[in-house]
Write a structure and sequence with these properties.
This is ABC transporter ATP-binding protein. By secondary structure, this protein is of the alpha/beta class. It contains 8 helices and 11 strands. Bound molecules: adenosine-5'-diphosphate and magnesium ion (MG). Adenosine-5'-diphosphate (ADP) binds next to strand 2 and helix 1.
């Protein structure tokens, strides 16, 4: 479902090149809950941004659900991101001038699929425990509530895959556990989740840990990976 082939990413660093990703090959099956771990600077966010099409690789190919996203134009990529995947960030990225309800409705405004947007947004917010707060603005709810609203928004167009970059990084343990429970429920419903985290305890709760160091995958010992012989470095 998610497959990368020898992806590389370089950033200009003064007059030198910094290799943020070095020939990364990963394969993720449908309905897996995968944690990408590693120290700060190991390339986790860079990898996630490539998988989400937020950024483009220098070399290599990325196929997601049969779409070769590395070949898409900027415009097509933006459309694909809105309809085919959900993205959750550490700092929530909610629009402060919109209520939680309006934030969740927003991705549906850009979707060709006709839906009762308000009804669906209310249903999503209810499902993450925010039924009472739908008309509040992000600045007036807690961090945990902001992240739950952001997750509801990421599900607006019912994407099969969710990408999350340190989704619990700004939350206390209790709120982090709430988010994890939400993710488990989504996995149960058939979604695929790829979550970047440097929290070892959280990563151990997922199905599979992909560990990165210096832009490389140094460990990938998921059950599916070992069955396919794709594990190891
Ligand atoms: P992580 O998410 O694991 O902390 P990142 O993927 O953010 O790591 O960064 C990996 C490496 O790439 C780091 O050395 C970082 O400084 C560098 N890097 C990331 N983004 C940029 C950028 N936009 N410009 C230059 N260097 C970057
Ligand atoms: Mg990061």
């Amino acid at each position: 479902m998610i497959e990368t082939a020898e992806i590389e990413k370089v950033f200009a660093n003064g007059n030198e090149w910094h290799h943020a990703l070095k020939k990364v090959n990963i394969k993720i099956q449908e309905n897996e809950f995968v944690a990408i771990t590693g120290k700060s600077g190991s390339g986790k966010s860079t990898l996630l941004n490539l998988l989400c099409g937020i950024d483009k690789p220098f070399k290599g190919k990325i196929s997601i659900n049969g779409t070769e996203i590395t070949n898409l134009s900027k415009r097509k990529l933006a459309k694909w991101r809105n309809s085919d995947i959900g993205i959750v960030f550490q700092s929530f990225h909610l629009l402060p001038s919109l209520t939680l309800l309006e934030n969740v409705m927003l991705p549906m405004e850009f979707s060709p699929i006709k839906r009762n947007k308000k009804h669906r947004a209310l249903e999503l917010l209810r499902s993450v425990g925010l039924a009472e707060k739908v008309h509040m603005f992000p600045d007036y709810v807690s961090g945990g509530e902001k992240q739950r609203a952001a997750i509801a928004r990421s599900l607006a167009n019912d994407p099969p895959i969710l990408f999350a970059d340190e989704p619990t990084g700004n939350l206390d343990t209790e709120n982090a556990n709430h988010i994890m429970e939400l993710f488990f429920r989504l996995i149960h419903e058939g979604k695929t989740i790829v979550m970047v985290t440097h929290d070892l305890e959280l990563s151990k709760k997922t199905d599979r840990i992909i560990q990165m160091k210096d832009g490389m995958v140094i460990e990938d010992q998921g059950p599916l990976a070992s069955i396919q012989g794709a594990g190891g470095s």
